[in-house]
Each structure stands twice: as structure tokens, then as C-alpha cells.
Amino acid sequence: MADIQSPSTAPRAWWRERMMWLVVGGPATVVLASFVTLGVALKHPDPVIETQQRLSADSAADGPQSAALAPAIAARNHAATGGPASGK
What is the pLDDT along the chain (88 residues), one digit of tens a residue? Predict the structure, then answer.
């Protein structure tokens, strides 16, 4: 029996397979987009914002605005250090 291959079953080149482009194209697009994002981030960095008033947990008694922020500062310090939030 002779080995007969019809044109529809003949192997095709890898770049002519649609499934290959679906498998490789998605991740390649993500890698390309990450390099574009890196380029934009390096070319246009965010400016550093300087604040007039820097608050700490000890300065909570300085005024009404800082007293209002004391619970948020204590919670932030607790989340950052894992220590007690009340300082007791």
C-alpha cells in the first residue's frame, strides 16, 4: 500500500497554524505592552508631592485637624509594624 497524503492532511509550516498564533500571540502582546509601560514610566515619572504638615502619632495633640487624623495614623502604624495600635 502506498503512503498517500492529500493536500488537506499535509503538514504545514508552523507560522501558518492559527492555533500557534493564539498560543504565542497573547503572551507576546503582554510582554510588549509591559515594555511600553516601562518606557512611559521611565520617561514621565510621577512628581514627588511635598506636604506642608507631616503628622505622627505623637503630634495628634497639636490641633483639631491632627487630632482627627490620630486614629488613621495609629491604624497605619499598626498595619506597618504589627504592633499594638494604641501604644499601650
Answer: 555 656 667 788 988 999 999 999 999 999 999 999 999 999 998 887 776 655 554 554 555 566 777 888 888 888 778 766 555 5
Report yes or no: 55 and 66 within 8 Å, Cβ to Cβ: yes
Mention every residue, 6+ apart, whose C-beta is less than 8 A from residue 75. 85
Q: Locate the domains of the chain by residue range.
A: 16-43
Which pTM does this prediction carry? 0.44
3-state secondary structure labels for all residues of 44-82: CCCCCCCCCCCCCHHHHHCCHHHHHHHHHHHHHHHHHHC
